[in-house]
C-alpha cells in the first residue's frame, strides 16, 4: 500500500510511524521540519520558555519557605532562554526525523498539493514542489492531510516581528519587553501572560470576554485571574482590539470602544487558521467547512474515499495529543485494523499557566447546562497537608461523577504540575472507574493526589451496585 502524508506535525509523523509499522510504503512530505509547527514553533517552544519562567518563580516563592534570595538579584538572561528554546526544538525535530527514517518512512522536503485530473479516482496524485522549484509526482492509495494551522492575522494588526508579534516571533527578541500587551485571552494568551509576568515583565491582557480563558473551567479561570491580579497584570475585559500600530519604540492598541493602550510590544494571540488553502482540495472534491477546516468523521475520513485528514486542519480539538491520535486512527482504519473511533470525552488537556489547569472529561459548563447529570465536588488544595508543606496558596481538585453509579466522568486539577496530577482522573474516566475505586486506592501520604482519593471517599456513598 502506498500512503502519502502531507505535514510532519504530530498528526502526520505519528500516522507515518503507525503506517510504517504495518509495512506500508509511506512518503511524508513537509515544507519545514519534522515535528511540524508543534515542535518547531508552537507547543514545544512555548513549554520550554514557560519552564525557564518557572525557574524565576521558584526563587520568588522560596521566601515563604524560609529561603531568602532577593528577586531583584535574579537576572534573566533572555538570550540564553531563547537559545535554549530554539536548540531544544531543533533537537526534538531531529529526534523525530531520525525515528521516522529508522522506521523506513521516506521524507520529502517541499510543498504538497493534489493534482488529480478528476474527482472520484481510486488512486490519488500529489505533486511536491521542492524549495529549489523541482517537482516530484506521487501516487497513493491513501493520502493523509495533516497540514496544521497558522497564527490568525488581523488585517489591522499586522505583525512586524519586532514590536507587533505572533507567538512564533517572541523568541527572536533580544530583550524582554518593558510592557507587553497581549491581545486574546484564550489558552495561548493566558500561558504567555503567565510566563512573562513570571519573568518580571509588565503585562496588559486584552480579553474580548468577561474573563480570561473563556473556554476553560470558570473556577479555574477565577484562580488564574486572582494570580494575575497579585502579579500586577492589568486585565482589560470586554475589550476587542480593532487596531494595533507602531509608533517608534511603542505600540498602540486601539479597542473597539475607543480606549487606547500603549506598551512597548504587542503579542497577538487571537487564534489560528487551518492550512487548507493551496492544497488543491478542489481537485479531489473536498469542500472545507466553516473557518476553512476539513470536515472528518471519528475515524478521520474526509468526504472523499482514500483521503483522510487529522490534526489542527480539521479543527476537531486543537491539541497535539488529539492530532496524533487522529493520525494514528486514520492509518489503523485504512490499513484494516479494528479501531475505536476518536472519543473526545476522554481527552485530558492542560493550560500551562502557573498554577496549571488540567481537565479531563465533561466540563462544569456541560454539568451546569444539564447535558450530563452528575454530582460535582471540589476540594481546595489549602486543605491538603502536602500543599501546606509546599506553601501552595492556590489550587483545587474537582470531580464529576454520575449521581446513581458514582462513575467518574470528569475532573479538574488546578495546581503545580496539574498536567501530571490529572492522570488518575483520566484513568478513572477512560476506564469508567467509580468514586469508590478512587476511595480504595492508596495515595502517598503526604501528597497532592491524596486530595483525589479524598474526593472519592467523600462521594463513595453514591456508588450504588457498581461500587
Ligand atoms: C502557542 C501554542 C502552544 C501549544 N501548546 C500545546 C500544548 O501544550 N499541548 C498540546 O497538546 N497542544 C498544544 N498546542 C496545539 C498543538 O501545537 C497543535 O494541536 C498541533 O501542532 C497540531 O498538530 P498537527 O500535526 O495538526 O499540525 P502542525 O504541528 O501544525 O504541523 C503541520 C505541518 O504541516 C506542514 N504543511 C502545511 N502545509 C503543507 C503542504 N502543503 N505541504 C507540506 N507540508 C505542509 C507545516 O509546515 C507543518 O509543519 C499549542 C498550540 C499553540 C499555538
Ligand atoms: N496548553 C495547550 O494545550 C495549548 C496551548 C495553546 C494553544 N492550544 C490550543 O490551540 C487552540 C487555539 O488557542 P488560542 O488561545 O491560540 O486561540 P483561541 O481561539 O482559543 O483564543 C483566542 C481568543 O482571542 C480572542 N480574540 C479574537 N480577536 C480578538 C480581538 N480583536 N481582540 C481581543 N480578543 C480577540 C477570541 O475571542 C478568543 O478568546 C486551542 O484549541 C487551544 O486548546 C493549546
- Chemical compounds bound to the protein: flavin-adenine dinucleotide, nicotinamide-adenine-dinucleotide
Q: Mean pLDDT, as a whole number?
A: 96
Question: If strands are numbered along the chain, what order do they take across the biggest sheet?
Answer: 3-2-1-7-18
Tell me the number of strands: 23
**What name does CATH use for the topology of the largest domain?**
FAD/NAD(P)-binding domain
Helix count, DSSP H or I runs of 4 or more residues: 14
**How many domain units?**
3
Query: Low-confidence spans: pLDDT under 50, at least 5 residues?
Result: none
Radius of gyration: 24 Å
Per DSSP, what share of the residues sits in E-state strands of 2 or more residues?
15-25%
